[in-house]
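Batch manifest, entry 17 of 40.
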Amino acid sequence: MNQKFHVNGMTCSACSARVEREVNKLEGVQSVNVNLLTNSMTVEYEQDTTDSSKIIQTVTDAGYAASLFVREAAAAPQKAEKSAGVMDDEIKGMKTRLIISIAFLVPLMYVAMYHMLEDWFGLPIPRFMLSFFHGPQNGITFAFTQLLLLLPIVYVNRKYFQVGFKTLAKRAPNMDSLIAIGSAAAIIYGIFAIFRIGYGLGYGDTETVNRYLMDIYFESAGNILTLITLGKYLETRSKGKTSEAIQKLMDLAPKTALVIRGNEEVEIPVEDVAVGDLIIVKPGQSIPVDGVIVEGSTAVDQSALTGESIPVEKQAGDQVIAATINKSGYFKFKAQKVGSDTTLAKIIELVEEASSSKAPIAKLADKISGIFVPVVIGIAIVSTIVWLLLGQSFEFALSIGIAVLVISCPCALGLATPVAIMVGTGKGASHGILIKSAEALETAHKIDTVVLDKTGTITEGHPQVTDILAVGGVTQEQLLEVAASIEKPSEHPWPKPLWKLPPKQALVLKRWSSLPPYPGGAL
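Output type: structure tokens
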């Protein structure tokens, strides 16, 4: 059986690698595919050996939350709006965190680095800075002010510490663990330095005060958290944009349908339409579900799904597809496929599966992520010990360890490829190209020949005017004016590419809005 799950709480590629590894250990599980970008997991397993509840429990034991994926293709527009709303809230939250972090980081850096303004930029040091912060006598004020400015940054970014230390306790450290350990070490050592400065001032030990004034790393901790938050904000924005193409597909389906029930026309949500319902579609409306026409005739624009540039004539007995547009006539049809069975729902499902699948290069990135964090922590510890053995001070050795932890936070390692895949499959779908899997997309660069059968066509989805031939003493300008005047009050699908005419002819078309209907009736 192939089952899809939502997985919440993953923050980096190490998280997705851990979830995949733990679920793979279950007996009966044949394959696991975890997508960090969509927070989803697809598991293929034997129903006789395991079930979805065991899989969810395994993910929970690993420190994350999981639930069954429920497809609501019938309510695709509502689902798209809800998903977009959640993503907007997430982006807004990240933006607020970033603004607060920067607002406190700027004065923190100014206080910490004010003495370098003159050396680096030739700027004079403000007198109040010298009065309050300069010299060993102001050591406590200098250090404690930095701590106070750092606290709001730590508070708004506390999630790094909550997630990082939680996963570390479960012996499954991730990228947040590196951030938490690095910044926490800098903060703890800074507080230790404040006590040492106070001790030095109390006993008149100016050398100790000066030494620890140079070993305050509060600005480093603030920089770590703010820069990582900036990266997360940009990452969240990119995640929001990647699903836009799929949401556009979902938005093709109408939200309501006009159904005949009890000899009355009733407008109901499209998800409430049942197989066998008789549905009315008026000119200009989108068809809500798949079905067969029982009364009336029309021309249907199917270009969004089939690429056919000319509306297709339909009459009683012909099939109609959800999300296509009724261009002219009034008709009734009987619903045959609803919800997740419609053609549009199947296309959306195919695109989602392709975007959540993994390319070979993504699988390689996940393998690296699975061992990356423990290796980095090990290197940081070894680096600190080696510098201590070489005779360096504890402060210097600690700063080396912190630098290794902080600089080794490639959170994008597990996101770069999924983002590229989702953008590629989504853009392809919006242009009528359906990609079956990420592996197919990765190997597409090797294609050198495309073969189409005799009915295969590649179109823009609408007709295009290529030539205008005026005869009988009529100029091209007169012909265009007459044609535009006739088409203005008509429901007939006017070829969109008239807007793509050469500049001189396009100038004529700008006068459409002022033209009255052509009195001659027809050409």
